[in-house]
Amino acid sequence: MGDVPVKRTSRDIRTANRYEVLRQIIAHSPTSRQELAAATGLSLATVATLVGELLDLGMLTEVGFEDSAGGRPRGLVAVNASGGALIGVDIAETYVRVELFDLALDMLARADEDMRPGENRPEQVVAHVAAAVGSVVTQAGVEGARVLGVGVSVPGQVDRDRGVSEYAPNWDWHDVPLLDLLSEHIAYPLYLDNPLRACAVAELWFGAARGRGDAVVVNLGTGVGAGLALGGGLHRGVSNSAGEWGHTTLVLDGRLCHCGNHGCVETYVGAPGIMLNLRELSPSSPLLHPEDQTATIDALARGVAAQDPVALTVVRDTARYLGAGISNLVNVFNPEVVVLSSWVAATLGDPLLNEVREAVARHALKRPFAATEIVLSPIPTDPVCLGAATFALEGALQSVSQRGASVSRPRARAGPKG
Amino acid sequence: MGDVPVKRTSRDIRTANRYEVLRQIIAHSPTSRQELAAATGLSLATVATLVGELLDLGMLTEVGFEDSAGGRPRGLVAVNASGGALIGVDIAETYVRVELFDLALDMLARADEDMRPGENRPEQVVAHVAAAVGSVVTQAGVEGARVLGVGVSVPGQVDRDRGVSEYAPNWDWHDVPLLDLLSEHIAYPLYLDNPLRACAVAELWFGAARGRGDAVVVNLGTGVGAGLALGGGLHRGVSNSAGEWGHTTLVLDGRLCHCGNHGCVETYVGAPGIMLNLRELSPSSPLLHPEDQTATIDALARGVAAQDPVALTVVRDTARYLGAGISNLVNVFNPEVVVLSSWVAATLGDPLLNEVREAVARHALKRPFAATEIVLSPIPTDPVCLGAATFALEGALQSVSQRGASVSRPRARAGPKG
């Protein structure tokens, strides 16, 4: 055991550099190879090689020249937005959302499917996903052949390589072969991961973690967790389950969690935990919609805007737990930025952020706190869909290094099946 | 801000590969370039280049040939143990320990200096370090000119680049320019870091983290923390303060910590926290030596060996806190191995380890728990001294990439000053 080497291959570096160059180009099209070299710290020769590969793949396009004072005119490149399409699937506890993007990761179409409470058998979820994927392809009017891949985010622990949902605690799924089930309906290359990592990769490519050394993306939804963007890449852990901050003990012997532990962060700051905070404070509050997380969080947000004292207290209580839990992340990771992401963070917005900042200041060590910015996700659309689509983009880019200069194409037919 | 690039340079890779090759050679001398390539996953050409550099530096030596079935005889290399000396300094709350190593990191000499309670002004600590460094050089009889560097570990948060102890909570040090003070007495190149990272780098080079992808080294002493060996290197964070797990909240609104927060892990499992666990259980226990942490932990270890019920209960209580806290690390990092290091772990040994394993099994998520081994540090000597000496070795290796093939030498004179 002790001597298994940790391989650092030139291919890993090459893949990371390819991501970095494409990230820059997506953020700043059109741009020159010289600007890319300056922005990434890579040599001009390396940038030229990587740009050449991306041009060959049809992911970039040449868009003319700019003058350079006294020197030769510099060639400009831009993302070839219409060079392909990417689909991101956000399977959440209460809905399925699917979005289709062009190669600049601009969203072209969206489809939402609600799931009723209890509607959580794998076949039911797969049917919703297949219907929504069919819908976005039709809406966007893209040829199916241009879809480079579909990234799928499912809550809980996943085995990416086998495409299996190992454990989804809210549904009690165990070892569901989700990609096999989906591939009976969807003919595009499929990539599986979970919302923690989808949100983290979305921030890394397009949001508040872009260009930051170490970032923690705190995902606040029904479940909660922390996507870890360390050293410019995702930290996945040895079995791809890193980031389960929602299941760290904050209150020893506290509330019982569905994971079996007591006092987990998630039991205080996940949407059901926030509902419990509200119920404990004011059992008959009209803000409380017992069977509807979304309606309750929406009502809290409106209550805070209207200075409702119960809503203000619930947000403050929640921020106290959240602040202590985020301080733990700040002290352990010493990140440059902590990003609050997902629908609960988006709905409660700045009032939550302000309370959280004050709470973190009380709990965290002064120096790592001073080195950390705490922000709301700047991504205006569903970060899980965007991140899932980014996994499909990374998959397409990675298939280059594995198979030479040819992006993987749909296996069988041009559109979604059945 | 958002566009500062994350540079991945070929020099970083080269340095990491140089470490990896030297680690293998130290572990398995003599060895061939072919074996090194197989063990590290690097190409034979890369290994040959790195071995050549280390030979030029005098860190390796050629030691003959081995037959390879039918092929050309293979040249064997080994660490040139006498090619230089490295010194590791462990400044702890109650003592200073200094060890001198040869280049195979075998210890040649040790000096200990006790510090009385209250004896913690920087000048006092510096005087102890200088005396002990002088002592080990004299004992070992090495020429001062062969000392390649001195690694210094000091508790708390440090600025390595400036050589400053930014904050040492147990002594209330703030921004003490420790390396400047030491350099008035010690003429060798000096490298500053803290015990969390010293223990982690010792495990990475010589212990349970060697060859592991992701390891967490839990440091149990007066203070506690977690050294993070991720992807084969140390995770330091944006301001070099990552790993402050001792100051994460485990019991919201629990015991007051000297950092200002309540319920920190350290207040339950650091040596003073364990003493408090004992005092709360049995205020007049003969195991308790109120002013002496070491004596108390020693007494607990003897009590456990003798099946003393109070000692058994204290260790079980402590393991319960420790198990919940380590589960947080398992769930967040999903590491391959968790190593229990430093003097409290070494003293309480297997009885503590067994209780901790059971407690982690109760608190952690099943899948990351199943992927994680929990072990005591296999390093038989002081891991902080070994790790500090390793920082000096890394410093000497790094200076190669910065200055060409010449190891940094003492600045002024051959021995310690004063």
TrEMBL record, chains A, B:
Cited Pfam families: HTH_24, ROK
Please give the name of this protein.
ROK family transcriptional regulator
The record's annotation in InterPro entries points to: ATPase_NBD, ROK, ROK_cs, WH-like_DNA-bd_sf, WH_DNA-bd_sf
- What organism, scientifically named, is this protein from? Streptomyces cynarae
Instruction: Report the PROSITE patterns cross-referenced here.
Output: ROK
Task: Tell me the domain of life.
Answer: Bacteria
Q: Which family does it belong to?
A: Belongs to the ROK (NagC/XylR) family.
